[in-house]
Amino acid sequence: MLRIYNSLSKKKEEFIPNDPSHIKFYACGPTVYNKIHIGNARAFMSADLLAKVLKGIYSKVTYVCNITDIDDKIIDAAKEENLSIKDISTKYFNQYQDDTALLGISKPDIQPFATDYIDDMITYIEKLIASDNAYEKDGNVLFRVSSFPNYGCLSDRKLEEHDSGSRVKVEDFKENPNDFTLWKPSLNEDPGWESPWGRGRPGWHLECSVMSESTLDIPFDIHSGGNDLKFPHHDNEIAQTCAFHGNDDPTSFAKYWVHNGFLNLEDEKMSKSLGNVVYIDQLLQNYKGNEVRLALLSTHYRQPIPWSEDLLDQSHNIYVKLQSAFKEYGVVDGKFHVNSKVAEILLDDLNTPLAIRTMQDLVANPDENIENEIATFKYIFEGSNQDLSLSDVQVNQINELVKERDDARNSGDYERADKIRDKLSKMNVSIKDVNGKTEWEIL
Ligand code: AMP
Ligand code: ZN
User: Fold this and answer.
1) How many domains does the chain have?
2) What's the pLDDT tens digit per position in 242-272?
3) Are 175 and 315 within one domain?
4) Which residues line ligand 1 (CB under 6 A)?
5) Considering the entire predicted model, what is its pTM?
6) Same domain, 361 and 255
7) Structural Rg of the chain based on CA atoms
8) DSSP secondary structure, 202-233, as one string
């Protein structure tokens, strides 16, 4: 019923679950060292979209999204903010929960924390060493990529490509520059755990192999993440898990691999290291959570999103128009109606831009199934928990703007009056002239 593009086979495929009575889906989650930006939110939104569609068609779905709470970036952030590692990861985990909820991203069913799985990771590494898939040197443990014949099968990179002409300095403890860290030593005050290789901490790739298998068992159905995770993160996960189980077939780990495109700002990937980031709280000063959600979903999840004010304004306008059209119908809650046109479109590789256009057409020319169409649309495109009730301060602010607009109109300054109307509209306030008096309502 669902068709989805599989990055492993490089084609759109019919989704055939391992066990239709229990769908299992793992998405790579955040490293909690800072607030998430809208680019990160796109990855979590894409996973949420897929989880919602799966939950709309299958009775039991377990959606896991991990939390990386040990990483060099967290250690650096702790030093910078003069807080403990635990305080940093707790602070930014809570912020991640709040930010995603404001965008209507549902909480995953399971959110495993990496630091709760250290013992499992150590046992995992021991087995990889015993089977010669890994080796230890000076307190470091490396995965030996040459031991896995299918290495790079997801990104289609060949080992030779990494080797030839590499200008990257190879650390002395590596047999081969492609070998990647499973365990590394923790020096001085850096957080660490006792292990057979001394005090240290796990490599990032390892945690997803261990946590996905611990929470879902393998093979599970779908593994997702941003495009940048295909290599090396997901290729390394595949190598570890397959080597651990002595099975070269990557589908013995996860059957479908789903990757979202980047969100770009002025043609460059939004990323903390480039400094071109926009945070969720900044956006929510001017737009509703569901409008930002619509803006993210107005591009197909595999395509890049050129992020801009224009996109947000367009999404705002679409949202306001749809809400006002929806008011004519008694649909309150969202529910996925498999037989609706909107659902049918989403089941074809999650085609959200076409679903939005179809919903716009449907409210203009409603058919007898319109209420189910709206319910399906709401189920996917709405759901922000943003509090819609207004504070006294907001009510006063709106009253003042309405009065300013009235004054501008009375003095013939229509340009200013229109500007204020636009500003009110951005705040989701609609105004009407009733018997010479201006009335307003929140959409
Ligand atoms: P991180 O916390 O850096 O590990 O990133 C969490 C998720 O956000 C990963 O799935 C990344 O691939 C994804 N991501 C990071 N930046 C962007 C971006 N600009 N556009 C889309 N996804 C992104
Ligand atoms: Zn991961």
Assistant:
1) 3
2) 999 999 999 999 999 999 999 999 999 999 8
3) no
4) 28, 30-31, 39-40, 42-43, 225-226, 228-229, 260, 262-263, 269-271
5) 0.87
6) no
7) 25
8) E-HHHHHHHHHHHHH-SSEEEEEEEGGGIIII
